[in-house]
Amino acid sequence: MSEAVSLEMKEIAQRLEAANLAYHRDDAPEIDDAEYDALKARLLELEAQHPDLKDADTPTEKVGAPLAAGFGKITHKVPMLSLGNAFEEDDVSRFIAQIRAVSRDAMLTAEPKIDGLSLALRYESGALVSAATRGDGAVGEDVTANARTITDIPQRLTGAPEVLEVRGEVFMSHDDFEALNARAAKNGTKSFANPRNAAAGSMRQLDASITAERKLSFFAYAWGDMSEPLAATQSESIARLAELGFRVNPLMRRTQPVAEAGKSLVTQLTDYHEEVALARAELGYDIDGIVYKVDDIATQIALGFRSTTPRWAVAHKFAAERAWTRLEAIEIQVGRTGVLSPVARLTPITVGGVVVSNATLHNLDYIAGRDSAGNPIRGGNDLRVGDRVEIYRAGDVIPKVGSVDLDARPGDAAPFVFPSICPECASPTVRDGSSLRCTGGLACPAQGKERLKHLVSREAFDIDGFGDTMVDTFWGDDALPVRQPVDIFTLPARDAELARNEAPGENRALATRSGWGPSSANKLFSGIEAARSVPLDRMIFGLGIRHIGSTTASLVARTFLDWESFFAAATAVAEGSVSEAARFRAVDGIGDAVIGALRETFMPGPEREAIEAMAAQLDIQSLEAPSTKDSTVAGLTVVFTGTLTQMTRSEAKKQAESLGAKVAGSVSKNTDILIAGPGAGSKADKAAALGVKVIDEAAWLEMIA
Fold first, then answer.
1. Is-same-fold flag (441-531; 535-621)?
2. pLDDT, averaged across the chain
3. pLDDT per residue as tens digits for the range 632-684
4. Can you name the CATH fold of 441-531?
5. Burial bucket for residue 388 (CB in 10 Å: 0-12, 13-18, 19+)
6. Which of 304, 545, 575, 568 minimizes the C-alpha distance to 441?
7. DSSP states of 605-628 as a string?
8. pLDDT-derived band at 560, boundaries 50, 70, 90
9. What is the DSSP letter of 68?
10. Catalytic site residues?
11. Which superfamily is assigned to 637-704 in CATH?
């Protein structure tokens, strides 16, 4: 037992150390705040339960990270500590109870916790003499030259103590962050993921002129070493800093006695926390919580410090991966299958360390406040332009809209109406389940371009050097247009024709165009030539047929084995063949929706003609029928889930298919076996509900040995 606990503690400590370096020193966070906080809380819990296993160098008793190379060092005369965290109202209640044990009438201040880079500014005789980062809490990096470029930081103070170290946060506003990334895109240089990284990276420039080009801001919120106190309370001290010329946060508040406020201290703080969380997107800068501090300085001194945090202050973090912002517009995008996808345009807000300005709204039912079955979501409330909405990142990746604040809805906000014609090609739209779909097919430019992007994607043809950007480039190229799949594979020949004819200006061959050259052109053409030989499953997936993903494409390919058989069966389905439709239906995951999509794709017309034209340019590799002799899994449908330790998921899939098994991507009544590794989730639950056999990786390997 102790060995397992010790191993877990070491693994968590290593992850925390790596995260500290990435965040504090390298300005490139690898995990979000919520995951970091959860890891640290778990390690603290284990250290409390097993003090004999606690490492003397544990990251739970460290602040920041070692210094980056290239900077001088400045020792903090008063250590720069971090703050303890509160996540729930109960955490805030415990914090208040600890304070009440020392002072029953203590009042607190509350202010937004800025998500930036901590900085200590030392003034002597009113002059700024040094600026240092937090570093490891004891020694920071000397960034004095960079700090002098920030207009919010006074160079001289009048009426200040002889020695005064002012502490605060360097940050970048949302507007300045967007401008910085826009310049980076224009100049072809690296962009930043979020304002915090941009601010920290800008402060750590060895060339102060680079820092000066990037507009940084500074809020003062504390102090370190000083020759005399600023005032008797936190709130009065902050007011004094404002008088000295520092920018302080205008949202800072002081609690009131319960008799005056009519609310308990905890309620006052949590109400403020909720209020600021709702206004978060409109502040113009990033915050990740609220900091509560005892107002009376003498009480702060009496409460004292832990090894890395003060007992008189705490950071009440916002709920992980969620934030409130304004829905500025709803725009319609047309995808490769013609589906009209609504996208929310948002007032930019940082969620989970990433600036979010767009979010998916799925379909018309979702906007109307119901799911695909007609059941209410968000309490049945629809979404309207102007609404204040809650944003979260599903799976830590895709921004989505959660709740809507009806109390903040503008009086003139109107229900959203989907267009009856495609905004790209003006073709009529039709209802398709919970969505609307353009009927324009390949005549719709949006569908045509997105289908090309799908065709060249990694899971499809994976053409080296021909990605989304190239599709956009050649789509608008009058001399070498690529608007049909076949155009990709005729591009080298058409370019050669331009070269032979010595076409002028922008109609020249690629090798002679600005930004290209012989090497770039040859690399592109080599990638196209290599892609002419394509496996059958990738060919089927690359066609972009609705409802046929990579897993289904693989199952279909293993059913028909060669292109001629697949194409004949698909065209027969389009012409009404019941027997060929039955062959497709026998494939796991194929039902009426896929049969309908096959009919649309392969009926006589422009779409089928485009497929035939491309196929004529290709060497489509047939698949060999798997050898099922002595195979114990031939004909079985299997699903892999969780983490595999003996092989990758791709290797396991290929091995199973080589033995005649069908590998599906989801569990259904047709599934024979679910192979579940550590971390198996909903698939394992569904298998149990359907009575599907569930085995682990070791049992699977034994079965196929």
1. yes
2. 87
3. 888 888 998 887 878 877 788 888 888 888 888 788 888 999 998 877 777 88
4. DNA polymerase; domain 1 (1.10.150)
5. buried
6. 545
7. THHHHHHHHHHTT-EEEPPPPP--
8. very high
9. P
10. 113
11. BRCT domain (3.40.50.10190)
